[in-house]
Amino acid sequence: MAGKRTNVEKICRIIVLGVMTCALVGCVQPKRITAAPNGHDNSVISTDDQAPVPTSPHTPVTSTEDQAPVPCQSATDFDLKNSDCTKCHDSQPTDIQKNGGKHKTAVTCLDCHLEHLPLGNETIPQCSMCHDSSDQEHFALGERDVCLGCHRNPHIPLDVTVDDVPENSIGCKTCHASKGVEFSQYPSKHAQKNCTFCHPTKHKVIDKCLACHEPHAEFMVYEDCLRCHQPHSPLNIKYADDTPSNYCGSCHTDLFEMLTKSKAKHSALNCAYCHKTQHPMVPNCSDCHGSPHDNTILNPFNSDCLKCHRNPHDLIF
Q: What does the angle CA 189 – CA 193 – CA 196 come to, to the nearest 5 degrees?
């Protein structure tokens, strides 16, 4: 009897376990699952009337009845992080790390890229989303297509490429306004050129004067040019008092030769000592010498020193 009772107890336990299993998982026939007929291998669909089962936030899904799109879950439902972007996008994060400027320090991927295909079409933002035209004149030049004319890679925004076209000069002057003012105040052939004529290809590239101009003297280099000429107002010639006289002599050859041969004290002075600060400045003798003669001497010569002393570069004394 004991053996029969044991077998009955085992059978009852099996029946109870079966009922519990059906209650937990449902005693139903398994549904057949097939690949979605939309060309996406990572999307699956049920042959019954259930909605498709998305396998990633980027997976488009389709109903088996009428192929109508079924709304996908939002990115926030999947808790996307900036680190997720690097799983597909390699070059952009590398560019930002190398030379991203404030695009590296002030914003993240998800701050700019608010949408993603296939559900979002505005995957690339307008620059004006952050760079408001009311903040700077430069930001008012146009929308994204205009910006990309110079800032060709938004992930390295300060790597600026420029073409030699007039409209780019307008953009230059919105940041470098003082240079535009110089061009207006001191007209020259430089002012008739595009900014990119002297600053070709890349922002902050500066062609040296001698790329176009012959030096006044063979010994002169680019830095010597800048001692007298400023590139944006080249005819407004200014210089320091200690400018060597041979700089002046490279143009004023006869006067320089006359001065160096003179026995008068003037020969010991730099040209800039008398011709101060700006070319062409011609001083009065009295600026240094005062009035060494009384009127009885000056009046017959109408106070013209050079009627006696001939030439300040070759004085008779």
A: 140
Residue with tokens 């999947």: 78
Q: Which domain holds residue 162?
A: 85-202
pLDDT tens for 21-57 read 444 444 444 333 333 333 444 333 334 444 444 444 4
289 in a structural domain: yes
Report the 10 Å Cβ neighbour count for 244: 13
Q: What are phi and psi of 179, to 5 degrees?
A: -70, -35
Q: Let me know if residue 22 belongs to a domain.
A: no
Please give the Cα distance from 80 to 60 (Å, whole number).
17
Closest CA to 246 of 218, 266, 210, 281: 218
Q: Concatenated DSSP letters for 235-265?
A: TS-B--TT--HHHHHTTSHHHHHHHHH--SG
Model confidence, pTM: 0.62
Residue 185 sits in the same domain as residue 246:
no
Task: Of 211, 212, 209, 213, give the one whose Cα is nearest residue 227.
Answer: 209
Domain count, the chain: 2
